[in-house]
Specification:
By secondary structure, the chain is an alpha/beta fold. 25% of the residues lie in helices and 23% in strands. The longest helix has 15 residues, at 48-62.
Length: 101
């Protein structure tokens, strides 16, 4: 937060601040989902599972997917635990996740 003083003496606070972020390259993309092992990460919101299952059903209707595995975060307000992310990375080729409110 920064502050400025007006000529009248009033103090003004600017809540915008500055955001600094280190750019990260995007993950490489698969050429096709045919035969891909798919991970489905449910964020544990009420409708997330329903939404994700419908997405997988749509994918399976048009693509010959490999194994589909479902994972669930402990809670929607917390990031996924590192151990869960490591497990997903080791077991699947592609991850699908979404917020279902």
């Amino acid at each position: 937060m920064s502050e400025q003083r007006l000529p009248s003496g009033q103090l003004i606070y600017d809540p915008r601040g500055k955001v600094t972020a280190v750019p990260h390259p995007l993950a490489s993309r698969r050429g096709s989902l045919d035969g891909a092992r798919i991970g489905v990460l449910d964020n544990s919101k009420w409708n997330a599972s329903k939404l994700l299952r419908q997405v997988i059903a749509q994918l399976e209707a048009g693509v010959a997917l490999g194994d589909v595995r479902f994972y669930k975060k402990a809670g929607f307000s917390r990031p996924a635990e590192a151990a869960l992310l490591d497990q997903i990375a080791a077991e699947v080729d592609v991850v699908v996740t979404a917020i279902g409110d």
